[in-house]
């Protein structure tokens, strides 16, 4: 009976002693570390030869390298755009094309906040003047035509006020242009008995060209005012070195100004 009473008493004494010693041990261990070591640095690993080291992926150079560059850094440098608008002919093109529409898509890299480089695909669709169509097709009802231009260009974009939500930018570049001038007429008939449009004549050419323009952009702020998405409106002058009017497939050099509205990020 006495042994059974002494055993719980002995356990209580040991528990009280441990409760008193443990906080003192923790405080002593923390006092051996500097404030910086106890709060920021991970514990050192000891190698087999006793030399200190850092755990893999810890505070060493390798860990900082992985934290310094990641998928977010790569994707933040990518640039994309998409837009559409209308075209106006200029220069010697006025007798041969009229107003039309366009759309553009592109992608590239943000080299820094001010400077980006985009590879762009543009498609321009312009109608042909009635007098020009009549001269080629001989007039008559149901005559029509169009001029289609495909452009693949490399174009730098320079943001003049990169820290502002509303900014002005300049852009320009050059590359490959393909132009097709097509004359059509309505003939009878398709499978359902309706008149159908067929191409009666076509001029095509492939050549180099260049463009230069400017635009206005508005950047959406985002939650932390760090968004890269912008809405833009721009006008460019495109010069295309199409064959001269004396050539069998040319109507002289082509000039037009597309006005495009879209998104860029």
List the helices and strands and how they pair.
Blueprint: H1 2-31, H2 35-39, E1 45-46, E2 52-53, H3 61-68, H4 71-77, E3 78-89, E4 100-110, E5 115-127, H5 130-137, E6 143-159, E7 166-187, E8 196-219, E9 230-240, E10 254-264
Antiparallel strand pairs: 1-2, 3-4, 3-10, 4-5, 5-6, 6-7, 7-8, 8-9, 9-10
Overview of the molecule:
With 265 residues, this protein is of the alpha+beta class. The protein folds into 2 domains: 2-67, no CATH class; 75-264, Beta Barrel (Porin). The chain has 5 helices and 10 strands, in the order ααββααβββαβββββ. It has helices spanning 2-31, 35-39, 61-68, 71-77, 130-137, and strands spanning 45-46, 52-53, 78-89, 100-110, 115-127, 143-159, 166-187, 196-219, 230-240, 254-264. The protein has an 8-stranded antiparallel beta barrel. A hairpin with a 5-residue loop joins strand 1 (45-46) and strand 2. The chain is elongated and about 60 Å long.
